[in-house]
Fold this protein.
Amino acid sequence: MKTETFNQLDKVIHEKGRMAIMSILASSSEMSFRELKEMLGMTDGNLSVHIRTLQQAGYVVVSKTFVNNRPHTSYRLTKEGIRSFEDYINLLEEIVRLNRESD
């Protein structure tokens, strides 16, 4: 296995917390801050930092609205986020396949 293959992994997605966020959002059309926080067991600050990184990369869009006069923040993957996550998963699968072939 060549190290270049591993170097192709998207470093924004590859971090454990962000990969978890991307995985959850990939399986849902939209998710609230509270739902993500509870599912991942992250603090407000930790989740906010990861979301901000994904948003700056263009992978996640943030929607802020009011529900029953209370602020409601939700997240969904952008088209670029979906494509990047699919590319990331495909590359991981390729790494596994190449390792199995070399055994």
Observations:
- The mean pLDDT is 93.
- Helices lie at 3-7, 11-14, 16-26, 33-40, 44-56, 79-102.
